[in-house]
């Protein structure tokens, strides 16, 4: 078998990891504030369809991506309002968003169903760097957004650990009562970071559509990547830099079925191979559940709990 | 929140007036229609016309209401499945996959076993196998949760995607037992006649609807009166108290999740016994599992109310489906948009049921010197 | 009601004289759903003084303190800082005015270091954090007030006394001039309390003012310059140092002459019903309980005293069958019950009243009736009818204040829910228990309820039950117990007989200094 194929697979895995990293970073920021937003999948779908429609309508790549970010912001705002201001159950609210995003993306995407990608995100031409054998295509054959995403993960990490608002964010997820006693509005911190998270999730969907999607078809777009991102957050122990490693790993499991199919390798039927990413994620989840692993992980203590100032 | 001299606050209620219980779902529905109407208008459809057509076709005509009841049958089951688990703060999101497995399991029984069974036993056995398959599919997330405390949310969810691929495999990827041998066109093989139930007349309502309704009422009564229902209510309220009273959290968690999976599996088998008669990939498009969660949430996890919300949602879907073949076709996803909106508004509306708005003037005491 | 010195203080203010109060409350009123927490309260704090707000649980003193620091907003009335009215909108606003509150339940982030906790929320914090600089700053502030702390230590690993120090340093770092300490001695052993008082004196000498919020009569008398007593949301009196008499203060707290004398067993204790022999519990390599042995006989109360966190909960759960000990034996009526589970322990004749009333002993959202059947054998269907009759009988007999038997227990006040719990564990039908394990039964209750509970326990003792009382409230143990044991780091380090107890020795034992 051609080693070139595997290099390409690796390269593709890294590329697809971009979506995962973006969505995971969004989820990390949200969850670090204590809010769990299960609506990732729905937000990504809406980001994808928005990017498609705007790209189709205007031909402008940047506008398309910008709008997918805005859509993510809008949906995250709904979630934030429901769960923070109105103290609704965070799980159910997130699910409602997924369902809503599912339906709405299908609805507004109907006119362009089956149409192929209007604008695309092309890999950068890095000249000599891309020509390095093996490492070249793997590391240097990507588009600018991929590199920006890696930088973004670094920025997130610095934000969390070395800045004042980052300190407040980390405190909010663990001990909102403490933050509140210091006079900082827990609701504001949560709101801001939920929305920031939504922006990244929307971008994840938009980028995916324009960089890796082929045609608009709701059923064939994100296909559960949003849920894998949620598992990735746990895998990354809520730390941005670790998300990169996990994303590449999962990117691999997402890419391998396509490679096998392309190479006409039929040890297993294609439908079974399609299960790989989900089974892999399940496996990882099981591994992360062992008592030893849990001690090393450290979820934000008050994740998923609405904060109500204790007035009796 | 303070504006000038007026303070506006959310204050927990001491008791909730009865009318509010009904007001929230009704108002949510209204607001959802408004949202749906907006999107309809934006895409060139008449909001009022379309929506009234949807309502008529979903509920108001004989054909409509019977279609709706037929559609509601499996939805009641997935709704019960979700309500049963969610009440205990066990978020089984895997109803979709458990339903698919129910479809597979019951079809297997219908193809392989039914021929060897006396006529009256075929349907019950097929239904049972569907329920067992559904329970099987939730076993892994359930064990992970009961023994290791892993969140069942993502794990049960991932099982959905595996199940989806499994159904695709059985119909498109293999030529095994579930495939119709008489044609090369990929479709499911019909189960034995003895295991199938005919519909009422020319409608699409099947006798299984009575089973679903009876199940809902029975569950309601059972959970209210029995020791098992008591123990689950204690556990749902305060796991520490349950432990103190000697109740096994492992046993309760496992049993609740398995039963929830079984109910979802039953939905799949009702689909097979009734309209489909075979493994049908068409089921994958409807999203009954996810809709069940919405139905349960809207019913605030009350089993009897699930019957009503399921009929409501099925009506939205049937009405929505029929709109695809009108003069100005509307994508069926409008129904999903409406469903999602109803839930979102109901969630928001909940806050007013639990709290009330207090508007007060902030008083000052002048400090005389 | 008010006496000379208070009058004089108020008078000088009224005449616009020289004395300026650092902090005052004027006619402050605060309501919560169903309860009037503060009713037209007046309060003054002089600069550099230690002023105690004394009152039983539920008197409204914590509420007043929360209003004074900006955590709550008063529905009516005003707060004055240095004579000028301030409308405090938040704790941060309070801090800007130099007012800080240290809560009973610490508001700290366990995951963070001491330095991170101290600087969290400070206005002047730069966007980019330089960890080393911050750590030095924190160390400096701590030193200045004689509160040595390691800024790099992770707060989650510190003791209660150390965490309290972090909270105080935090307040000082943020520029507090006035410190409100809410029940600061609740989690401290007597010698640690002494250390705290030293710290407080150091702070007042440096010009800070301190408000002590407490219900512990005996302690506050020494440290306070003035004591203001509250009851049922109102101020009942204010006395200055030297005029404070324990009995008078108790009277102001409760409104009547209360009998603080101890209750002891009136007869001979009979056969041994509960026996622990070399019981130990090792978890994660740490000895939570080590070599504990004692007996409890029918008709006696054995009291286990100790500061919270020294193994009380583990001990209770071992005896109640929730955890199995890793060594030793527990027997009830001669029958070995190690790790047989709660159900079997109950069958053997033991009833357990846990410390956490609503979160463990009762199911908060369930009705009184449903809670009554919690610890008994239920059939396939739950018999609520007879339980309902029983519940109504208890409500009458024990004077439980509730709309009806179907009310959710979380809607009841602390005292009333405790009565439900005790009714079930001591008296309920089908209850053949002869051994009773009771943990901190009067925590958070007002004196009236405390009296009622103590009376119930006394009666149970007279009826021949063997009672194991595990309480962090030393006064309670001293009042009720025939035999006293002190638990420190999981071992019994001191034993005494109720009538002949040396309180100072007990205090030292509680701190591990015997």
Provide an overview of this structure.
The complex is a heterotrimer of chains A (312), B (369) and C (514). With 312 residues, chain A is an all-alpha fold. Chain A has one domain: ABC transporter involved in vitamin B12 uptake, BtuC (Orthogonal Bundle), CATH 1.10.3470. Chain A contains 14 helices and no strands. The mean pLDDT of chain A is 84. By secondary structure, chain B is mainly alpha-helical. Chain B has a domain at 73-314. A 3-stranded antiparallel sheet of chain B has the order 1-2-3. In chain B, strand 1 and strand 2 (6-12) form a beta hairpin. Among the domains of chain C are: 4-98 and 177-254, P-loop containing nucleotide triphosphate hydrolases (Rossmann fold); 272-363 and 431-510, 3-Layer(aba) Sandwich (Rossmann fold). In chain C, 34% of the residues lie in helices and 25% in strands. Chain C has helices spanning 4-14, 61-69, 91-96, 114-119, 131-144, 160-173, 190-205, 217-223, 246-254, 312-319, 342-347, 357-361, 368-372, 384-397, 414-427, 447-462, 474-480, 503-510; strands at residues 23-32, 35-45, 50-54, 76-81, 84-86, 99-102, 178-182, 209-214, 226-231, 234-240, 272-283, 286-297, 301-305, 327-332, 335-336, 350-353, 435-439, 466-471, 483-488, 491-497. In chain C, strands 6-7-8-3-9-10 form a 6-stranded mixed sheet, with helices on both faces. Chain C has a 6-stranded mixed sheet with strand order 16-17-18-13-19-20, with helices on both faces. A 4-stranded antiparallel sheet of chain C has the order 2-1-4-5, covered by helices on one side. In chain C, helix 15 (414-427) runs parallel beside helix 16. At the A-B interface, helix 3, helix 4, helix 10, helix 12 and helix 13 of A face helix 5, helix 6, helix 12 and helix 14 of B.
Task: Please provide a brief summary of the model.
With 312 residues, chain A is mainly α. Chain A has helices at 3-32, 40-58, 61-85, 90-109, 135-140, 144-162, 164-174, 176-181, 186-211, 225-235, 240-262, 270-274, 276-289, 291-297. The radius of gyration of chain C is 25 Å and the shape is globular.
Fold blueprint:
The complex is a heterotrimer of chains A (312), B (369) and C (514).
Chain A (H helix, E strand, L loop, with lengths): L2 H30 L7 H19 L2 H25 L4 H20 L25 H6 L3 H19 L1 H11 L1 H6 L4 H26 L13 H11 L4 H23 L7 H5 L1 H14 L1 H7 L15
Chain B lengths: L1 E2 L2 E7 L5 H25 L4 H14 L1 H25 L8 H19 L5 H30 L3 H22 L34 H18 L1 H11 L1 H6 L4 H28 L6 H4 L1 H11 L4 H20 L10 H22 E7 L8
Antiparallel strand pairs in B: 1-2, 2-3
Chain C lengths: L3 H11 L8 E10 L2 E11 L4 E5 L6 H9 L6 E6 L2 E3 L4 H6 L2 E4 L11 H6 L11 H14 L15 H14 L4 E5 L7 H16 L3 E6 L2 H7 L2 E6 L2 E7 L5 H9 L17 E12 L2 E12 L3 E5 L6 H8 L7 E6 L2 E2 L5 H6 L2 E4 L3 H5 L6 H5 L11 H14 L16 H14 L7 E5 L7 H16 L3 E6 L2 H7 L2 E6 L2 E7 L5 H8 L4
Helix pairs in contact in C: 15-16
């Amino acid at each position: 078998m051609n080693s070139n194929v595997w290099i390409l697979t690796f390269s593709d895995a890294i590329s697809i990891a971009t979506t995962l990293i973006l969505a995971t970073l969004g989820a990390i920021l949200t969850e670090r504030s204590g809010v769990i937003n299960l609506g990732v999948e729905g937000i990504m779908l809406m980001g994808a369809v928005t990017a498609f429609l705007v790209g189709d309508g205007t031909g402008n790549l940047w506008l398309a991506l910008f709008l997918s970010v805005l859509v993510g912001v809008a949906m995250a705002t709904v979630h934030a309002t429901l769960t923070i201001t109105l103290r609704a159950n965070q799980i159910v609210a997130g699910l409602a968003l997924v369902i809503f995003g599912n339906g709405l993306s299908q609805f507004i995407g109907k006119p362009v169903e089956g149409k192929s990608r209007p604008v695309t995100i092309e890999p950068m031409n890095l000249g000599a760097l891309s020509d390095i054998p093996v490492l070249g295509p793997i590391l240097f054959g990507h588009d600018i957004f991929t590199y920006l995403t890696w930088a973004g993960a670094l920025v997130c990490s610095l934000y969390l650990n070395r800045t004042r608002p980052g300190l407040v964010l980390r405190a909010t997820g663990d001990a909102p009562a403490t933050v509140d006693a210091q006079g900082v509005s827990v609701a504001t911190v949560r709101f801001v970071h939920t929305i920031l998270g939504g922006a990244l999730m929307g971008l994840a969907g938009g980028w995916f559509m324009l960089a890796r999607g082929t045609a608009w078809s709701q059923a064939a777009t994100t296909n559960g990547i949003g849920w894998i991102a949620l598992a990735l957050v746990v895998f990354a122990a809520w730390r941005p830099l670790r998300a990169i490693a996990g994303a590449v790993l999962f990117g691999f499991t997402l890419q391998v079925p396509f490679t096998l199919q392309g190479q006409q390798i039929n040890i297993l039927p294609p439908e079974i191979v399609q299960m790989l990413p989900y089974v892999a994620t399940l496996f990882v989840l099981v591994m992360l559940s062992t008592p030893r692993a849990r001690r090393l992980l450290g979820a934000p203590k008050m994740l998923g709990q609405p904060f109500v100032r204790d007035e009796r | 929140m303070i504006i000038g001299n007026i303070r506006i606050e959310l204050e927990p209620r001491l008791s909730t007036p009865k009318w509010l219980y009904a007001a929230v779902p009704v108002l949510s529905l209204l607001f959802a229609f408004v949202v749906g109407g907006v999107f309809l208008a934006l895409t060139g459809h008449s909001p009022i016309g379309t929506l009234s057509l949807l309502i008529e076709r979903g509920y108001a005509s004989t054909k409509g209401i019977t279609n709706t009841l037929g559609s509601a049958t499996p939805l009641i089951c997935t709704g019960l499945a979700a309500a049963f688990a969610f009440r205990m703060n066990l978020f089984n999101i895997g109803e979709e996959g458990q339903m698919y497995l129910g479809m597979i399991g019951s079809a297997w029984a219908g193809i392989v076993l039914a021929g060897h069974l006396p006529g009256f036993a075929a349907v019950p056995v097929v239904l049972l196998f569907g329920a067992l398959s559904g329970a099987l599919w939730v076993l892994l997330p359930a064990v992970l949760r009961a023994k290791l405390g892993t969140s069942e949310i993502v794990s049960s969810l991932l099982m959905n995607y595996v199940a989806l691929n499994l159904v695709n495999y059985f119909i498109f990827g293999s030529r095994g037992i579930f495939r119709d041998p008489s044609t090369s066109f990929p479709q499911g093989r019909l189960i034995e006649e003895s295991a199938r139930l005919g519909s009422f007349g020319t409608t699409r309502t099947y006798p299984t609807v009575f089973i679903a309704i009876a199940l809902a009422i029975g569950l309601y009564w059972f959970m209210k009166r029995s020791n098992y229902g008591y123990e689950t209510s204690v556990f749902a309220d305060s796991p520490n108290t349950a432990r103190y009273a000697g109740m096994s959290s492992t046993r309760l968690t496992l049993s609740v999740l398995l039963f929830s999976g079984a109910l979802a599996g039953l939905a799949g088998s009702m689909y097979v016994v009734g309209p489909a008669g075979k493994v049908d990939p068409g089921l994958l498009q409807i999203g009954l599992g996810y809709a069940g969660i919405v139905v349960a949430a809207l019913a605030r996890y009350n089993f009897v109310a699930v019957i009503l919300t399921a009929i409501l949602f099925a009506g939205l879907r049937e009405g929505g489906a029929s709109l695809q073949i009108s003069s100005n076709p509307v994508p069926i996803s409008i129904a999903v948009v409406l469903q999602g909106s109803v839930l979102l508004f109901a969630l928001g509306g909940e806050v007013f049921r639990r709290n009330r708005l207090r508007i007060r003037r902030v008083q000052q005491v002048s400090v005389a010197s | 009601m008010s006496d000379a010195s208070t009058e004089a203080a108020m008078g000088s203010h009224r005449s616009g004289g020289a004395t300026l109060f650092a902090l005052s409350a004027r006619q402050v009123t605060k309501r919560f759903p169903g309860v009037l927490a503060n009713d037209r309260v007046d309060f003054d704090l002089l600069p550099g003084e230690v002023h105690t707000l004394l009152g039983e649980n539920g008197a409204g003193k914590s509420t007043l303190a929360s209003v004074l620091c900006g955590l709550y907003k008063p529905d009516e009335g005003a707060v004055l800082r240095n004579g000028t009215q301030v409308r405090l909108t938040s704790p941060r606003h309070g801090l800007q005015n130099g007012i800080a509150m240290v809560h009973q339940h610490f508001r700290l982030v366990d995951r963070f270091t001491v330095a991170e906790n101290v600087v969290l929320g400070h206005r002047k914090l730069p966007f980019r954090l330089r960890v080393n600089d911050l750590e030095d700053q924190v160390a400096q502030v701590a030193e200045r007030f004689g509160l040595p702390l390691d800024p790099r230590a992770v707060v989650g690993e510190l003791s209660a006394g150390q965490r309290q120090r972090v909270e105080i340093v935090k307040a000082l770092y943020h520029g507090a001039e006035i410190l409100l300490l809410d029940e600061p001695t609740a989690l401290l052993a007597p010698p640690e309390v002494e250390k705290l008082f030293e710290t407080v004196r150091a702070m007042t000498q440096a010009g800070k003012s301190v408000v002590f919020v407490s219900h512990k009569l005996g302690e506050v008398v020494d440290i306070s310059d003035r004591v203001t007593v509250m009851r049922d949301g109102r101020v009942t009196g204010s006395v200055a140092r030297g005029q404070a008499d324990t009995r008078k203060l108790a009277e102001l707290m409760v409104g009547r002459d209360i009998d603080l004398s101890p209750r002891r067993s009136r007869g001979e204790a009979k056969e041994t019903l509960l026996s622990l022999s070399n019981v130990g519990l090792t978890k994660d390599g740490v000895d939570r309980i080590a070599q504990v042995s004692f007996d409890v006989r029918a008709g006696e109360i054995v009291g286990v005293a100790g500061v919270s966190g020294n193994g009380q909960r583990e001990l209770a759960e071992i005896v109640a069958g929730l955890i199995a000990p890793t060594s030793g034996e527990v027997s009830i009526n001669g029958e070995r019950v190690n790790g047989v589970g709660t159900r079997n322990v109950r069958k053997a004749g033991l009833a357990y009243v846990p410390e956490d009333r609503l979160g463990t002993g009762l199911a908060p959202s369930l009705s009184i009736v449903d809670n009554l059947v919690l610890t008994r054998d239920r059939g396939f269907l739950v018999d609520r009818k007879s339980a309902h009759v029983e519940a109504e009988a208890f409500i009458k007999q024990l004077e439980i204040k509730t709309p009806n038997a179907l009310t959710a227990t979380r809607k009841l006040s602390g005292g009333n829910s405790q009565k439900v719990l005790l009714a079930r564990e001591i008296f309920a039908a089908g209850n053949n228990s002869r051994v009773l394990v009771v943990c901190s039964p009067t925590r958070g209750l007002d004196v009236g309820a405390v009296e009622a509970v103590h009376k119930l326990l006394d009666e149970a003792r007279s009826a021949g039950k063997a009672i194991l009382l595990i309480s962090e409230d030393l006064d309670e143990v001293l009042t009720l117990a025939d035999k006293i044991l002190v638990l420190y780091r999981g071992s019994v380090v001191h034993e005494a007989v109720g009538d002949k107890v040396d309180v100072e020795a007990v205090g030292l034992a509680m701190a591990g200094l015997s």
